[in-house]
Amino acid sequence: MRAAIFDLDGTLADTSADLLAAANACFPQTCLTMAEDRALAFQGGRAMLRVALERQGRAWTEETVAELYPRLLEHYERHIARDTRLFPGVEAALDRLALAGWGLGVCTLKPEGLADLLLRKLGVRDRFATLTGQDSLPYKKPDPRHLLDTIAGAGGVPAHSVLIGDSQTDRDTAANADVACILVTFRPDGLDVGAMNAAGLLDHFDDLPALLDGLIARP
């Protein structure tokens, strides 16, 4: 079976506003803004906390970050889909792929529980046969086994599979696994993915089924 495996943050959904809000909730005053820090949101919770601490001029260590991180996760879980939205065309594209016989999965660096919760809140969890998060396995992206195990869970084989992502990490993961990679061009922070030598670039989810068919013939 052919398998289409998706990253989550920045690929299926714009999660930046809710991630930044969770980081800000760890401090008395707002330290991070959408205008300045949208790109930072996709670097992870600890990265956001480090920048927020620096902006406050506070002396901090990685222990400080580790102490704040559970508070960030708690706030994020409670407000996980307040402002997060699927990118236009996601649901229709997933339905078209399923009808065409593609196995669908999610391979994300988000903790599995939060990824599962978010996909359920967004109404698309049942579209995916499998979900592997940051803590699902002993390894994670860019380790190829994270992707390869997700492909297997979706019923696919690597030679007939594609990873759809939004970052250099996704590109590296696919290359390490010898799997084709498509990168989205609409990541909210405007990251230039054109120089990453992906097998394809996706401007809108309406174009995804045809793009995948052009890369992976029906086995």
TrEMBL record:
E.C. number, please?
A: 3.1.3.18
Q: Which reaction does it catalyse?
A: 2-phosphoglycolate + H2O = glycolate + phosphate
Q: Alphabetically, which GO biological process terms does the record hold?
A: DNA repair
Highest rank taxon of the organism:
Bacteria
Q: Which SUPFAM superfamilies would you find in this protein's record?
A: HAD-like
Instruction: Offer an example of a GO molecular function term for this protein.
Output: phosphoglycolate phosphatase activity
Annotated pathway:
Organic acid metabolism; glycolate biosynthesis; glycolate from 2-phosphoglycolate: step 1/1
A Pfam family of this chain: HAD_2
Q: What class of enzyme is it?
A: hydrolase
The Swiss-Prot or TrEMBL record describes its family as follows: Belongs to the HAD-like hydrolase superfamily. CbbY/CbbZ/Gph/YieH family.
Q: What is the recorded name of this protein?
A: phosphoglycolate phosphatase
Native species of this protein?
A: Algicella marina
